[in-house]
Amino acid sequence: MKLTFPHMGNVYISVKALLDTIGTDYYMPPPWSRDNMQRGINNSPEFMCLPFKKILGDFIDGLEHGADTILFGESCGRCRMNYYGDLQTKILRDMGYRFDYIHLNLSSLTYGEIMSKLGPLFKGTGKALAVSAVTSAVRTIFAVDGLYRAACFVRCRESVKGSTDSIMLEFEEQAGRARGFAETRLALSEARVKLSRVATDARADPVKIGIVGEIFMLSDMFSNLEIEKKLGGMGAFAVNTMSVSEWMKKHFIRAMLPVKPRDKAVAAAQKYMRAKDIGGHGIYTVGNAELMCRSGFDGIIQVYPFTCMPEITAQPALGEISEKNGTPVMTLILDEMTSETGYVTRLEAFTDMLKMKKEKSSAS
Q: CA 174 to CA 177: how far, in whole Å?
């Protein structure tokens, strides 16, 4: 067996460490590949969303590099991700590829689901090691997301521009070379120490921007054109509400608790949607936007792929939230035709507007 899997932001760091630990042969597509994206675009239905096209491109790359098994997660509910596996499998088989397909049900992800679906990967591996490896993978997802959040906090306050980006680039290169969890933890530890030593401006008072939207676009830096990094470079503190670790809290850890805690975001969205689910993560887009406005965020940015129905459904509610709270909201809809220059211009204009609004409020 030779496994391949698609990229979704920095999750590859945990998946790679897991596969190295249990000794599974694999091919990992490069995290940043315009060639792979173009392959996916060329072989996808025109109006499928950007995540579908990027994932398909990674599959093609993996199969062309000798992989015979695909690992991917699917969902359920009112989102086209439900059909990704079936449609992508048909496209790939029509292209002449032959492979096995391992899909995880992301809507009911439990240890039992993971151990059952990943059984072929754990052949020859003791149950104790398998459980330990999966647990370490989950912990690594949280640790990596924590590092990226810390980078966002430091980036907008750094005295020497580019210091944070240099550290994170070095971390990504080191994590790519790491073999197993021990080396990955070492890379994380070293990066955290370096970030803590970055010189910052104690007088800095950056505008605080919350980012809401579709989870793939918010998690995958290639797809969202590095929005957190760009905002940080503009002097804004970006807070991503839909990271993979946040998803794990809601759909993995929460599911294992005997008593389910109240979901504040879903509760906050009820006055606008009157539903607990509108497909995808649209309900969290609405709820998190409301909660961040209440918490004094200076602005909100919604990011989603072109034709994403759950986010289209959520978008009108953001207008109500903006008017009610007096918090500016901007929506960015991305596809393969998005101009990075125009994208940056919109981010700059929005950030500058928030800074002027904050200065005016402080002066009055």
A: 5
